[in-house]
Write the structure tokens for this entry.
Amino acid sequence: MGEQTTTVQVDERADQMQALVNYEPEAVELREVEVPDVGEAGALIRVEAVGICGSDIHQWHGSHSWGVNYPVTLGHEFGGVVEEIDGDGEFEPGDRVVCETAAVIDEKSPLSRQGKYNLDPDRLGFGYGDDGAMARYVAVPERCLHHVPDGLSFERAALTEPCSVAYNAVCQNAEIDPGDSVLVLGPGTIGLLCVQMASLSGASNVIANGLPVDEDRLEVAEELGATDTAIDDPSDLIDSIGDGLGVDTVIDASGHSATFEMAMDAVRPDGHITKVGWGPQPMEYSMDPVVQKGVTVQGSFSHTWPTWEKVLTLLSTGQLDVEPIVDRVAPLEEWRECFEGMHDRKYIKCVLTPNA
């Protein structure tokens, strides 16, 4: 017998739904769109919570540096309930799930076959390359799904994605040992989560660095494990740690290329820099210090299946605490206030609930 689509009717679902659509550069609005089809080897998810990412704000303002398939529904940090699913496999209707961001990949590419589908050059993500989850429903490939542990709320589970970005940067692409010193540049959502990951990895000194406008966020960094904070130039603080030669590891989570120079000044000879924040600005900086200091520079992008499983464990056990960075949970209709609040730095992170 061939596989069949299994369906559960949770409520009387209409053919149309509200979705937050980025329909052209610098143009986002709540629109009525069709409820998506499941598609082959896919699932339809009833979205219970979707986090607002800085990339959503950038697309709203047209300040992004990546291609967008207009019109597209925003949202790539989300969790919900399986409504329909094609086939009979690991997931079934009613399951609580979160979803990875790699909406489209070439599963036959050498990188995908090595498990590095996050680096597949043909990869497209939800919210810019394919319709995302700032809507009542979203269609996703089953391969992207992960079960949400019992007791973990959707509002917190939706942050598995940014937590996975930070885990990949700090726990997989950096070289942190117990007793190390770590500098985290940029106290945005990813930077704050990187502070927590560095602390969980055993670093004895975790310095969070930001600008004067970041003073309140640096206080949150202390809640998440920062042993010290620095505004603007952290060099005096770094000189007082250990032998004064610099920190063992720098995590550059800033969205500005200019911070790489600060990272090079702060890192010790034979140290490590992981760059996870990115922006379109040219660096305009000589790479000679990389050679002179013998520093390892590591880029970190996205995440893969094992990372999500690790993060879900950390969230469910309470070892990873996202509570301090979630400032507002709101219905989808209040998206503009949330976007504006994040852009104006009133909020660190907002979570929308399309089916509340």
